[in-house]
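Hello again,

I reread your note about wanting to compare the complex against the isolated chains. To keep things tidy I'm splitting this into two emails, and this first one only covers the full assembly. Below are the input lines as submitted, including protein chains and any nucleic acid or small-molecule components. They are followed by the predicted structure of everything together. The single-chain runs will come separately.
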Amino acid sequence: MQGEYEVVIGLEVHVQLSTASKIFCASSAAYGADPNNNIDPLTFGLPGSLPVLNKQVVESAIMMGLALHCQIRRFNRFARKHYFYPDLPKGYQISQFDEPICEHGNVEIESGDSTRTIGITRIHMEEDAGKNIHDMRTSASLVDLNRAGVPLLEIVSEPDIRSPAEASSYLKKIRQLARYLGVSDGNMEEGSLRCDANVSLRPRGELKFGTRTEIKNINSFKFVERALEYEIARQHATLKKGEPVIQETRLFDSNTGTTHSMRSKEESADYRYFPDPDLPPLVVEESWIQEVGVRMPRLPDDYKKELIDKHGLSEYDAGVLTSERSWVDYFDSTLEICGDAKLACNWITSELFGLLKKEGKEIEESPVKPEDLGTLISLIKKKTVSGKMAKDVFEEMFASGNKPEAIIKDKGLEQITDEDAIRKIVEQAFNDNEAQATQFIEGKDKLHGFFVGQVMKLSKGAANPEITNKLIIAERDKRK
Amino acid sequence: MSENEFTEEDIEKLGTLSRIKIKPDERASLAEDLSSILGYIHKLDQYDVSEVEPLSHVHGSTNVMRADSVKEYDNKEGILNNTPDRSGTFIKVPLIVRPDEEA
Amino acid sequence: MTLDLLTENEDVTLSRLKKLLSSKEISSVELTKYFLERAKSKDDLGCFLSLTEEEALKQANKADEKIAKGEDAPLLGVPLAIKDVLTTDFGTTTCASKILENYHSPFNATVINKMLDAGAVLYGKTNLDEFAMGSSNENSSFKPVKNPWDTERVPGGSSGGSAAAVAARIAPASLGTDTGGSIRQPAAFCGITGIKPTYGRVSRYGLVAYASSLDQIGPLGLSAEDCALITRVISGKDPLDSTSMEMEVPAFDTEISKDIKGMKVGVPKEYFIDGMQSEVSEALAEAKKVLSDLGAEIVEISLPHTDAAVAAYYIIAPAECSSNLARFDGIKYGYRAEETHDLFDLYAETRSEGFGEEVKRRILIGTYVLSSGYYDAYYLKAQKVRRLIQNDFLQAFEDKCDVILAPTAPTTPFKIGENINDPLAMYLNDIFTIPLNLAGMPGMSLPCGFDGKNLPIGMQLIAGPWQEQRIFNVAHAYQDATDWHTRKPEGV
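Full-complex prediction:
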């Protein structure tokens, strides 16, 4: 927002965890099953059913907390949050209320050309609700409880975000971290990442926050900025008219790109939180945090620093490689084989990404395994294959999935580096072209290129150019 | 709501919050019952508990957890058979009119 | 052949039935039919909500096959009744509520599986106050239960059907649940023995929750010995109930005969209050004498926060009840009101028509005490008082005594209808049983006399957490020395 107002944004992000089972029961947490297939007594809220906590959920929360530099709470209790809705089978959601597992964290995000630090208020564990589908034809709603009980982390930021672009950058950072840690696939289309935003404007220089609205239903990356921009413009126009912004919840409609007030005839929410008596408290000792910390993969920022400092990659290249864990993992495996960070980076970001993009494939689906790319790069370095030929080999690897050595051998692309073999070819070239040989020996140096061409022709391009050069000179001198 | 006395309006509000329809002719007697119970509950006011830790779980056990493994439930049909109204394997309910749902 | 197992000197105790079964004097099928017949002929007492005849006879047949092969199990072939708040994958599980009238649970409660594994034959689900909320069984949505000692009087509640069935020898023993006295008070009112184990001793998986932090399952029977056997069978850590605890389960029944000489029996002065029926305090005084004669040392103790228990209970229990019963909404199972025009109505009508008055009252109180702005004043305060009450007990067991002796209820059974319009008077009936649930302690009620109207009086034995064995030992010694527990109502 240019001019007299400053934008203040805080985000609440729901990250769906990619555990195998649900947070409090053993049904599958997988997406996409047939309606009401991932169910059991607890998922349906049957009388007599009881919750048992999934340990992986706690460890995912601890990892996310560590990645966001949070304090991890020692004594945790789950609380019940009550409201009536068909997709909430028990009539309450098991969540955490005033005792969230992580608090007081922060995360660095990119903002334009620099970085900014955004405070993290809290992270808590909770269960997801099911899904309602509305059928206008039959005037009925249909309830599918597969998603009910799937674990979520709710990550709440401080109101530190100052623009829609920063909001998007923040969200991408959260997604990147979640994917790095392997706690979530971060897939917004499948609802693995959902976002609500608190937005307000205040006159520049003013310390007090303006009245905020809460925007719900931002369920896609491309809509984050659009929804916020619309809402900021709406609030701006309201304030310009001298009218107050009303504190309310507004829904984003992705079809129109607008937000509208959620008018509910129901009474204002009173969730009646209290500690869930079915779940004993959870005590997170320092030793557990350390144990989880040890198992944690390296985080993108640390990784990026290492790529620059230790491997001499550029800031840009390091940023590209670390933006997805799968990319940096691929890079790692490639590097392990070939030992050349710069070559590995170049091959991945240009050749591999180029072909993947062309085929619309993710790196996980790459027909070329990182070990094979590593081998190819080693072969280049050993001069077994020339850089130019290696590109053809790589394309063949991508098309067939075959090993580089096999392709090179099959097609006879292997460079001839054996000096005796090349010497024989050179001798033949001299013998076949006596006139030129004589001129060359007598000092017509520019015929050197002619003989290189002859040797390449005879060897079908496989002779190593450097050795060829050397041996042509040697042959000339010998015949002098 | 005042200290100890429930009005009929209070009862109506609580009914809404707890999704129980209370007929107008039941409100007065319920207000009376609840007022007398609440009056009795205020007995607790004579205890100074400012320094006492609340007790939510009696025997102090902690960290009861299970490993993250899937076990498919073996009687899903037994669950779905109790559903008052079904459409395939969906639970059918009257049309929910709330704008935060995808149509 | 018409069986007659009940004579002047003979009763249907578990040890006797087991002997008859293992010596093949009687088959499990015969025994099961015997109790089914008795249940049907005494239907007017209202003890059962459903009989699961077909399933029971199958179980009995299986038991007979095992007996024939010489196999044994703790309850092999013994027919038992269970409170209809425990889920079974056969028959219905109604909780005596219209909202679950035709509900078929797809799974068995853990205690049901344990009983079946121990060879028991489960032939019927007993009546109760709706969702176990009440002290008289008048809150059943289907029918009241009558006290076999005087059919104009209540059997107590909420496990009224389970208690009356045992008193009338319609069942040799039964399972009940106890949230504020629901096993012990009806046991006292019906002249039988019943124990609420330590919170966490028995899995609550499959117990339809009323107040999760207070609910516990336990047996009702003709003697401490019978209760000890069933308690052993149903106890133990259950991976499906996070609040059940990993504690060693003693052989309560085989370890029951122990000298109680030198055992310290505490008598809390706060449990002898104004307005208590004099015959109850007289019976308790007699019991003290008996225990003292058996070599126990009687010591006076104080549990200073006793007076706060009922008030704390009527915050905590309704709060948890309002939460636990939120799931009964007509969406996924159970009763759904017809012809409602929107979702709100569907909820409000379903719950209004499906729940009875007392349940609604407790949901409303619970909703109120948890609502925004009131939490600290009510719920949090009650949880703090709960700590004080638990500390009272822990202190007493640490410093003064091994078990506590107290009355179970301030009076003998009252008349049907007498308290129904005064909820508070009804609540105060549980004044001596509630503190244990708040503190998580085990407690037993056992018969210790009769009043002038020949109505039974019960006394309570309380121990520290996981110390049920002490209760069984003292109770068994007492029942060895007295015959109150062997008395049968007229006509039985």
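For quick reference: Chain C touches chain A at residues 86-87, 93, 95, 100, 103, 105-107, 109, 204-209, 211-213, 239-243, 319-320, 322-323, 325-329, 331-333, 343-344, 347, 367, 370-372, 375, 379 (CB under 8 Å).

B.
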